[in-house]
Amino acid sequence: MLPVVVVHGGAGHIPKERAQNSTSGVSAAARAGYIVLKGGGSSMDAVVEAVTQLENNPSFNAGCGSVLNVKGEVEMDAFVMDGKTLATGAVSAVRDIANPTQLARLVMDKTSHACLTAEGAKQFARSMGIPEVPMESLITEYSRMRWRKNIAPDANPVECQMGKMGTVGAVAVDSEGVVACATSTGGMLNKMEGRVGDTPCIGCGGYADNNSGAVSTTGHGEAIMKVVLARLILFYMEQGQSAEAASDSALAYMKSRVDGLGGVVTVDPRGNWAARFSSRQMAWAAAQKDTLHYGLYTGEHFTQSIDEPH
Ligand code: ASP
């Protein structure tokens, strides 16, 4: 069953004209993560590689393509966790860098802290030699259009969240059976300045523990935080549920308890995996045994050889 990598491109409602880009983006990211694993890389290397690719892809709400806050600016959150040691690293409300997940990994590897935020995170990025990029380079026409539409006094909040692009994330198990997760987001459209979502909060945006598995989440961050979604899934797995059943149980609990929708990718340390969501769509892809699996709508599950172009 090992190794395996599973990625998501965000829970939500993806307009038809953007669907193809979303599925090809997650498929390429899963393939990139899988190449790392096949080359003997760790699950942490694989999830960071997969999520970095998605951050660089303007079709997703992370890195370039992030949604804008109410002031029309980009503020991003990211999280990584290693299931062997429970080491974690996170950044919140960071600006002017292309790959927040790589910065989160540096927080894990090079500091004694779990999360750095805002200006302090920026100083740390500088000290690590991470290049600063102009905010404009992270903003797409599409994200500016949606910001403008939503800021209009007659904006319909439901419609505005409809064209929503996805937060991104990945989970993996390497050939040693070590699990890891990474999640990265621009957050919620037109959020308040300084709003921190679920993504950088341990147990909410993700969790990884070799004793049970790894999860990366997406969806309404305030709801995810209330139920500590990633850790809840692993709790159900510890009680004997499969990755798929535990993911469904936790998503159902979030829906019934706090009326929240979302999606997750989940693995157990043996390489069983699931990509599940309660939202209308979630672009996802998995790579295992030289096969690429992917889907977008509920119940969809396509497979092809990993080498076939998507
Ligand atoms: N969970 C993210 C947040 O609330 C958004 C998303 O997953 O689409 O920041």
TrEMBL record:
The protein's matches in Gene3D superfamilies, at most eight in alphabetical order, are given as: (Glycosyl)asparaginase (3.60.20.30)
CDD domains in the record, alphabetically?
ASRGL1_like
Q: Where is the active site?
A: T167
**Residues the entry annotates as binding substrate:** R195, V196, G197, D198, T218, G219, H220, G221
Pfam families in alphabetical order? Asparaginase_2 (PF01112)
Alphabetic keyword roster: Autocatalytic cleavage, Hydrolase, Protease
Q: Name one GO molecular function term.
A: asparaginase activity
GO terms of biological process kind: L-asparagine catabolic process via L-aspartate; proteolysis
Q: Which PANTHER family does UniProt cross-reference here?
A: ISOASPARTYL PEPTIDASE_L-ASPARAGINASE, L-ASPARAGINASE
Q: In its UniProt entry, what is this protein called?
A: Isoaspartyl peptidase/L-asparaginase
